């Protein structure tokens, strides 16, 4: 049984779109001139962010996905990061942009970057829409961050609570009402 809750809007769809435009200008400067960029989305949480990001990015890109799981259906991170689905393509000698929805403890991003680095990309950068720095257990930060947020339980724009609410167009925080 799930606890009853309401969702308070934390970051509007408009604010997200504006921030993505800014981030894409910076990403464009970093990768200008390359024709070997692969944008790697970490499933499932990044699926909406990566969709908006690549459409705003005026660069030739390939898109691939990797699924790493550190949470079950609950709210607590486990330190065990499992690769549930690997990339389809090789990244050796390629430019790679890893796209994450949220960095919490840092275990997922750290594990994924370590794994992909071992495959010999020419250059690897990372971007996270959200960052909860106060929750960090591993010293890692994405090269670009959309928004730093407090330690609130957030949903929407790809992020779930018990697999629900990924389809909200905004980021909201879950407030339990029981
Ligand atoms: C969540 C989130 C990040 C990760 C962040 O993924 O999408 O990938 O946890 O937490 P961490 O910094 O503590 O590792 P989750 O495993 O819930 O999978 P999902 O993306 O499919 O929802």
Which properties best describe this structure?
178 residues, alpha/beta, Rossmann fold, six-stranded mixed β-sheet, three-stranded antiparallel β-sheet, 9 strands, 22% helix, globular, binds 1-O-pyrophosphono-5-O-phosphono-alpha-D-ribofuranose
CATH architecture: 3-Layer(aba) Sandwich
H/E element sequence: EHEHEEEHEEEE
Bound molecules: 1-O-pyrophosphono-5-O-phosphono-alpha-D-ribofuranose
* Global structural class: alpha/beta
State the shape.
globular
Computed Rg: 16 Å
Q: Segments where pLDDT lies below 50 for 5+ residues? A: none
Q: How much of the sequence is in beta strands?
A: 25-35%
Written description of the protein model:
- The chain has 178 residues and is α/β, with parallel strands linked by helices.
- It has a single domain, classed as Rossmann fold.
- It has three helices and nine strands.
- The strands form two sheets. A six-stranded mixed beta sheet has the order 4-3-2-5-6-7, with helices on both faces. A three-stranded antiparallel beta sheet has the order 1-9-8.
- The two termini are 13 Å apart.
- Bound molecules: 1-O-pyrophosphono-5-O-phosphono-alpha-D-ribofuranose.
- Residues 42-45, 69-71, 77, 100-109, 160 line the site of 1-O-pyrophosphono-5-O-phosphono-alpha-D-ribofuranose (PRP).
